[in-house]
Amino acid sequence: MGTILNPYISFRDTARPALEFYQSIFGGELDLRPFADFEFAKTDNAEDDNKIMHGHLRAPNGLNLMAADTPASMEWKGGTAISVTLSGDDKDEMTGYWEKLSEGAKIGEELAQAPWGDWFGMLTDQFGVDWMVNIDGAGAPSN
Predict the structure, then answer these.
(1) What is the pTM of this model?
(2) Which fold has domain 8-69?
(3) From residue 32, how far is each of 45, 52, 86 by CA, in Å?
């Protein structure tokens, strides 16, 4: 296996529904490990037991997302200045991702032709994660 760079998203209490939402968009295998599964990770707060200590979505097209809940006893640094970016040239696939990610999202910039010739859009999904979608100009939707 070569080198892989994966986004690892921190949530306060919504890692499970967020990863299940992303699985509904991208497909693939979802591995969810709650804090209760790991003796070393147990906290004094029983409410943390069912929260996700480590979650990993492996989509069949090679997309990977990892996520975890931050226990109540730790500082959560939500809303950090990072975006997950999807780029590709399959207009149907990319537009489908955009439409599904848009459900319950705050649209920052509608998916539209950008000055550089590609189609580009930005949104913050229903879980507070920022996304950028870029469709290569050759495969972009036509007006």
Answers:
(1) 0.84
(2) 2,3-Dihydroxybiphenyl 1,2-Dioxygenase; domain 1 (3.10.180)
(3) 19, 6, 23
